[in-house]
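Severity: low
Component: inverse-folding endpoint
Summary: output formatting inconsistent between runs
Steps to reproduce: submit the following structure tokens with default settings.
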């Protein structure tokens, strides 16, 4: 594949949920050798280090369950700016951090796409749809709201206005197996491409993903990929606080990434929800690095063999 400028952006976001630990994610990816793996594929890699949330003050949320609203807003501002500033220079890779980081990364990439006159599409590789709003969440955890925010749902008045909302029909969710009732009801009124694990069991992952990528290409779009650890089955990726049994296999994960690589459409990437405190000898961090390498050109015969014994 074509060699690229890859920009690693550490986003130690740990305010999108109550269970702590994701703030250690960016450094776990570094320890697992993400820069070396991507450099080894011939890419140029720049690591911007770990960013910090902008300090903001916000009014108390209408929903008293909402957790750390001001910090989430601050991170959204910081990461949207980072996406917009770095996308013209190469491919931003956001090292998370919980999924609340995508409030900012996707919003910033949508602004970049608008600036270059291309539609932004979003591939949400996750067990959850993350389509809540601060008003509808019954957990108060804002890592469950990014897709709601970037597609322009109401209820995000404390956050920066989304200048370029992503139409819901430009969103594809792959790996779904835990969707709350309020999210399901809201999604039923839209045209997002929803690929749950039953569909993957019955048809495989190739056909729906190929159809989505064909559409991105046909419309001249660019693609933001948001990869959540919990897309994978917890038996192979235990380092996540939102484990849902019945997830994707290692091979299914690599197939998704290899197809994305073949498409040449990916403009930006989130690696989210890694909680190293819950990992087993770094196996989840290593697997996520391997998946990122597959997206950026590593093929099956190039893949290292690891022992976790």
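Observed output (run 2 of 3):
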């Amino acid at each position: 594949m074509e060699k690229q400028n890859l920009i690693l952006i550490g986003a130690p976001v740990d305010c999108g949920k109550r269970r702590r630990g994701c703030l250690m994610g960016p450094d776990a990816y570094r320890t697992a050798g993400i820069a070396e793996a991507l450099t080894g594929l011939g890419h140029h890699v720049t690591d911007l280090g770990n960013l910090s949330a902008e300090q903001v003050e916000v009014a108390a949320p209408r929903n008293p369950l909402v957790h750390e609203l001001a910090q989430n807003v601050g991170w959204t501002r910081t990461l949207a700016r980072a996406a917009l500033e770095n996308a013209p220079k190469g491919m931003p890779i956001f090292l998370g951090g919980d999924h609340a980081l995508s409030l900012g990364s996707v919003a910033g990439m949508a602004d970049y796409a608008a600036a270059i006159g291309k539609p932004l599409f979003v591939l949400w590789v996750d067990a959850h749809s993350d389509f809540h709003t601060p008003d509808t969440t019954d957990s108060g955890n804002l890592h469950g709201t990014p897709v709601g925010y970037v597609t322009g749902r109401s209820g995000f008045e404390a956050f920066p206005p989304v200048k370029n909302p992503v139409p819901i029909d430009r969103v594809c969710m792959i790996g779904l197996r835990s969707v709350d009732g309020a999210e399901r009801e809201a999604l039923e009124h839209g045209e997002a491409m929803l690929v749950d694990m039953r569909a993957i069991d019955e048809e495989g992952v190739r056909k729906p993903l190929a159809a989505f990528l064909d559409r991105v290409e046909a419309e001249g779009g660019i693609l933001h990929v948001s990869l959540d650890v919990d897309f994978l089955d917890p038996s192979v990726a235990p380092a996540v606080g939102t484990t849902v049994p019945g997830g994707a296999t290692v091979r299914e994960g690599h197939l998704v990434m290899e197809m994305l690589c073949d498409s040449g459409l990916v403009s930006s990437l989130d690696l989210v929800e890694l909680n190293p405190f819950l990992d087993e000898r770094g196996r989840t961090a290593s697997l996520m690095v391997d998946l990122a390498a597959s997206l950026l050109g590593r093929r099956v015969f190039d893949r290292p063999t690891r022992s976790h014994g």
